Amino acid sequence: MRWLSAALLGSALVLHQALAEFTFKASATKNGVPIPDSEIKFVPYQFGRSPPGKGAPPGNPKHRMTRRANVQVSSANWCGSVNTTPSTNKIKYIEAYWQHPTCTKRTGQIYPQAVAAWTGIDGDTATTSILQAGTVCKFDNATASVRNEAWWQWFPSASYSIAPSTLPVNAGDWFNLKINMTSDTAGIVVFTNASKGIAVTLNLSGGSALSRTDSVWVVERPQYGSSLAGFAAFTDIWFQDASAARTSGANLQIVGSKQYYIPSLCASSEYSSTYMVAWNP
Ligand SMILES: *[C@@H]1O[C@H](CO)[C@@H](O)[C@H](O)[C@H]1NC(C)=O
Ligand SMILES: *[C@@H]1O[C@H](CO)[C@@H](O)[C@H](O)[C@H]1NC(C)=O
Ligand SMILES: *[C@@H]1O[C@H](CO)[C@@H](O)[C@H](O)[C@H]1NC(C)=O
Ligand SMILES: *[C@@H]1O[C@H](CO)[C@@H](O)[C@H](O)[C@H]1NC(C)=O
């Protein structure tokens, strides 16, 4: 799911060996009650598994306000907001809510097709390491149905999907994602199924050092093998209450952010200080 600059495109590998020192522990609760460790499952982030089923279509909670005129940046695979802080004032914490979209196959795109919505730290001005977590929809081929999953990656370590039996994801579901950094190489990631009260907490350490300078809220066309997956069509994705706390000063938010877009496939806009919307143009 890593972001690729044009220069890297085509040469990067999608699956990276986990760094030897990289470890994670997970815990999960449902309505505040711990879920037994034996029931918390991760699976390789991959295409080609059976679908978890379809959910109800989403309804957008708000109408669009007038879009603001942010700096616009064209990308092969990123669509959304990035705000950057100086390296002397690092990001300590980032969060957002969003509604997992209804995805449909997009005519003219190769298979597999996918759309990932995520929040994370780095990947724009700092590209060595990225901590990213979110939801994704995938179509393996023209006959397969959609699979929706939660996933995370501390790039350049491998990405993981959270097994649907641990954290189900359906079209229209509201998610909250929080990342609380304890150092450049360690942090706590909390996924919350906002509708059903399911929370999965990841305690990560030994990750490749982050700069903690880019706050990122994006919809991504993910990588598949050594190239990009097809980009499925999706209903508008709203990021809400998007905010990143820093060592000092005001939080980074959507306001004033750089807006990435994928030509003809995805547009994004600042909607308010903490809201961003990404849509099929
Ligand atoms: C399409 O995907 C489905 C589900 O993953 C699989 O059963 C089927 O064999 C695939 N068909 C082709 C032509 O690859
Ligand atoms: C982040 O974690 C620290 C403890 O490691 C805690 O004191 C702080 O309140 C947390 N921040 C947020 C916003 O949850
Ligand atoms: C939460 O879990 C339930 C199943 O327990 C699922 O139906 C729903 O789609 C999940 N997501 C959200 C955000 O509610
Ligand atoms: C995360 O793990 C570290 C060490 O493995 C531990 O010291 C810390 O208390 C854990 N934090 C949480 C919130 O579980």
TrEMBL record:
Catalytic residues (UniProt): E220
BP term (GO), one: proteolysis
Keywords carried by this UniProt record: Signal
Signal peptide range: 1-20
A Pfam family assignment: Peptidase_A4
GO molecular function terms listed in the Swiss-Prot or TrEMBL record: glutamic-type endopeptidase activity
InterPro entries with a match to the protein in the record: ConA-like_dom_sf (IPR013320), Peptidase_G1 (IPR000250), Peptidase_G1_sf (IPR038656)
Gene3D superfamilies reported for this sequence: Peptidase G1
Name of the protein described by the UniProt record: Concanavalin A-like lectin/glucanase domain-containing protein
